[in-house]
Design goal:
Elements: H1 6-11, H2 33-36, H3 39-42, H4 47-66, E1 72-78, E2 82-87, H5 104-110, H6 133-139, E3 141-150, E4 153-160, E5 169-173, E6 177-185, H7 198-211, E7 216-221, E8 229-234, H8 239-250, E9 260-266, E10 269-277, E11 284-289, E12 292-293, H9 299-318, H10 330-334, E13 337-345, E14 350-351, E15 357-358, H11 363-381, H12 383-416, E16 437-442, H13 444-453, E17 459-464, H14 486-492, E18 509-513, H15 518-534, H16 536-540, E19 544-547, E20 552-556, E21 559-563, H17 566-577, E22 585-588, H18 597-605, E23 612-614, H19 620-631, H20 635-644
Parallel strand pairs: 1-7, 11-13, 16-17, 16-18, 18-19
Antiparallel strand pairs: 1-2, 2-6, 3-4, 3-6, 4-5, 7-8, 9-10, 10-13, 11-12, 14-15, 19-23, 20-21, 20-22
Helix pairs in contact: 4-6, 4-7, 5-6, 9-11, 11-12, 13-18
Amino acid sequence: MNNMDLETEKISQIDKDNNYDENQIQVLEGLEAVRKRPGMYIGSTGPKGLHHLVYEIVDNAIDEALAGYCTEIQVDILPDNIIRVTDNGRGIPTGIHPKEKISAATVVYTILHAGGKFGGGGYKVAGGLHGVGASVVNALSEWLELTVYDGENVHFQRFDRGSYTEPLKIIGKTDKTGTSVSFKADPEIFTETTSYEYDVLLKRLREQAFLNAGIKIVFSDLRNELEPVQEVLHYEGGIRQFVEHIHKTRGVDAISDEVIYFQGVGDDMFVEIALQYNDTYNDLILSFANNIHTPDGGTHETGFKNALTKVINEYGKKFNLLKDGDKLMGDDVREGLTAIVSVKLTNCEFEGQTKGRLGNPEVRPLVDKIVNEKLMNYLEENPAVAKTIFEKSVQAQRAREAAKKARELTRRKSALESSSLPGKLADCSEKDNQYTEIYIVEGDSAGGSAKEGRDRRFQAILPLWGKMLNVEKARIDKVYGNEKLMPVVTALGTSIGEDFDIEKLRYGKVIIMADADVDGSHIRTLLLTFFFRFMRELIEDGHIYIAQPPLFKVYRGKQVRYAFSDEERDQYIRELAGENNLKVDVQRYKGLGEMDPEQLWETTMNPETRTMIKITMEDAVKADEIFTILMGDKVLPRREFIESNAEYVKDLDV
């Protein structure tokens, strides 16, 4: 099975000679528990679970594409947030199931663990919820309508909350094949929202189009009939174009002209990898198993990383680019790397209920073998590209060694000093980080007010001043010794890089408190970028907060209100003016330093009255992309991002 082209290798994963009919639909268990415990099947009943319904139906169509029978999928968001997914595959089998004595299509949509993914001749490569997807979507929908085209007849059946009153019936004639599913998520289940986010679905569908080269996905949002939106997602270049898309979206420049691509097969597994280096200091590796994103990696990603490091080192030794005893580390060879690792195999073993990590042990040696052979061949055949990659890796190695020296110097300096805490830190008396919090405050003036107004028992204050380092444009060696950032690192106690230890965190809440203006927003973004790049676990564990100081003081005599928006300001003016339209004074706070300690405590620091935003990281890849756009070197992507998101930002009085 060597020397086969991409499409032939994909088709080799299935056996097209096997019949796909009612005999391939196997039933494992019933459907009763789904509506009682929906979170067990789709993760949550919030927005994430809502969008997962769409993914499950689309995944069934993708499985038809993997089997070689589907070339186009249409996904529509209709008015009232109804979803319709149509494919031109073979159509779900409509014959009578030998065991259940009802249509096989009805079985698929009403009985849990019923589907072609369990039979020997249905699908050999499949994503979805291991075959439970269709029935789960049906169970969690207010209603679902199934239409099957088998080349002769049009079959139709309607379900209400997973149940049906009429069997699958023929409603017309047709010469086409395929399946169309329309459903409306049940508001009794999805109590938070049943409204779909276009961009969330677009990201997932584009991902699927990249991972399945040649398939055409047409995605339409028809909720606004006056302004319908449509995207045609069709990428003959597959994951090569995926890498190019990532670089274009992030506004980063590749350091070589072409994306490196290779593929291979073995033991009913298909592996394809695309990679390209760019001019940033951060790496991004996206791994997939049977089209399912594995954010926590797994055996396929581990095999790729180890093999990449080994190949770059062997290349350096072979061509005398490395001194005897020198060795590049994994972080060195991955600096600035964007890579897609996609594997397709018969039986995926995912670790964790959310399928975050691939566990199949047989995948790792295959990926390792393919990378070792094909990447080395590529580097030897393209010496200019190889030299560029190797030089970047060596620069990363030097920066790592410089960071190590700077880290050791910082340690020695701290050991010699009587107190290792920053001089400007006003610490709290409590030591248990379950109760402590630190305010990182912009400017000495605001810091002075915060120190006077705080509760000294559990609130610490660290003032910052001057321009802060943009770590998006700097390696870690530039962070050590930085007079703006190291006080933050020292105060928190966790260190950074190799020494980072979340167990040493001195404060349970790390609160960024800056002015409500452009400069304040910049400082918040710089600090968030720093935490994201070098102390990400603080965000992941929910320790980072943004303070929300008021914008206005609205007062008449001794009656005082603090407003956090223009609308709130106008509301308080009306309330205090009363029916007699009395004079009301309004003070616009230009900065935190304009508040006296009592005001700052009352509005921004008192746990009983304050408002704070907790920073979370639902999608690390998206967060990575946004930080690269906002804090990177390229102006155009940043301008496009700001323009496209301007509607979400309120005017600032600066």
